[in-house]
Sequence to fold (180 residues):
Amino acid sequence: MRSRLFRSLTLAASLLAGACARRGPVPPSPEGFLYPAPPPGELRQAEAIEKAWRALLSGDTRKAERSFRGILGDHPGQPAAQTGLGYAQMKAGRVELAGQAFATVLERHPEYVPALAGAAAAAQRQGRPEPALAFLRKAHALAPGNLALRRQVAEVRLQLTERRVAAAAEAAAAGDTERA
Fold:
């Protein structure tokens, strides 16, 4: 159970780090176009998100949650911060709140892969593998090269298959040939 959460958090951290990573300045082109670097306020926001993620990954869920809430206070609806808050809540055992945090992100950003992965992890922790698989399939379709997502899709599919086989065996043992 802990290794799945750790894998989910590691996956989310790597996806968010890639999404929030600073890009180095690019020299102006011969036409005089300048690299569209984010304004200084957005750089501080990205640094704050990264710091909150580090707190979460180090196990300090309270600090991470406070940090993500602070970012959201200054930048309501910021998807990386809202997703991070969801992961902090999930790590603290508040899975239902985590699912709500991921749903909030997905309402405005339905293709945000870290939130899709988080929603899948929350659904799995709630014992709902069908929605988890739907979230993972969408995330994998958006990030087909992500091997961690591919592995998670396979794990949930296996879990669903095992459930179906167990239900069929139980039905057969009870003499219910229609369900078996």
DSSP finds eight helices and no strands in the chain.
